[in-house]
Amino acid sequence: MTFQGVRKAVIPAAGLGTRFLPVTKATPKEMLPVVDKPAIQYVVEEAVAAGLEDILFVTGRSKRPLEDHFDRNYELEQVLESKGDTERLNLVRESTDLARIHYVRQGDPLGLGHAVLVAQQHVGDEPFAVLLGDDLIDARDPILERMIAIRSEFGGSVLCLMQVPRETISLYGCVGIETDPINGVFAVTDLVEKPDIADAPSDLAIIGRYILDPAVFAVLSETAPGRGGEIQLTDALRVLAKMSPAQGGGVRGVIFDGRRYDTGDKLSYLQAVITLASQRPDIGPQLTAWLQEFTSTGSTGNQ
Ligand code: G1P
Questions:
Q1: What is the dihedral sign for C-alpha 93, 287, 46, 9?
Q2: Beta-strand runs (E) in 194-257
Q3: How far, in Å, is the centroid of ligand 1 from the Cα of 226?
Q4: Is there a domain that residue 289 lies in?
Q5: Local structure of residue 4 (DSSP, 8 states)
Q6: Which CATH number belongs to the domain containing residue 148 in this structure?
Q7: What is residue 104's predicted lDDT score, i.e. its pLDDT?
Q8: Distance CA 135, CA 273 (A)
């Protein structure tokens, strides 16, 4: 039996970005640059690379710059066109031509589970992907296509898991799994959102990529606020894990061991920018040489 394929991606982007104030006072955190592209563009490119060209952003107030970034900018295009600057013109058009992008507003910011529920009308009765903007997956280590294939084979929902140091597990959703995987696919038996270390069922954290069965919507609409007083996707997945396949239940996980960057807080954001910049052919070699000099002598090279 093969299950219905995945065509749509949902990207929650309604968060206030308070960890990055003051820059996020008037600029959405999704628009913070990672080298020269907004963080969110990497995430959209990842979805498109996995064949998902229908993207729904769940946004909130003051997210206009995000909408503008994926829209045409005729004025800028005209200026670049008249100068014959095709290279920059292509950069401007790239984000517009990437995918079919839709928007819905979350209204009350009641948590990740609520953001997913708001996507129900657009998604309808089909499986879909959810990509969280704070997690950047290196384009050289794609995982989404594999998750989609797992969904097609087994049905239900699929999580992307990562082994983390146990003392950091309370920053993540955490899963309990059956120990014997089938071709690297684990059956998820339990889920806890940001557990205390003592209560964590394992050291496997959920990272921000999900394939969800549409059965999640009915479950979310019954899910009470959990950790932090928010409606948690993890709590709805715990219910799905215990439901039968005929009801759209079943949760599986695959362990990601590729390169992932976290843009969710200041330090990890800076690390992500430096890591990605140092891999760029245009500025990487110079940046790396400068970093070596800077870390060994403290010199910024221009004193
Ligand atoms: C969310 C989820 C959490 C998951 C994390 C991955 O938490 O609720 O289960 O582990 O994303 O980045 P957040 O980091 O948005 O608080």
A1: negative
A2: 204-212, 251-255
A3: 13
A4: no
A5: P
A6: 3.90.550.10
A7: 97
A8: 13
Reported as a pLDDT band with limits 50, 70 and 90, residue 161 is very high
Q: Residue 179's pLDDT is what?
A: 84
Q: Ligand 1 pocket: which residues have CB below 6 Å?
A: 112, 132, 134-135, 172-173, 193, 205-208, 233-234, 264
Number of domains forming the structure of the chain: 1
282 — phi, psi (to 5°)? Answer: -75, -35
Residue 15 falls inside a structural domain? yes
Mutate to test the pocket of ligand 1, among 10, 43, 130, 134 (most ligand atoms within 8 A of CB): 134
- Of 170, 160, 281, which Cα lies nearest the Cα of 227? 170
In a domain, 293, yes or no: no
One-character DSSP codes across 219-230: HHHTPPP-GGGS
For residue 201, name the pLDDT band (cuts at 50, 70, 90): very high
pTM of the model: 0.95
Q: Residue 77: which domain range?
A: 8-284
Nearest residue to 63 via CA among 42, 46, 40: 40
Per-residue pLDDT tens over the stretch 16-30: 889 999 999 999 999
User: For residue 15, what pLDDT is reported?
Assistant: 87
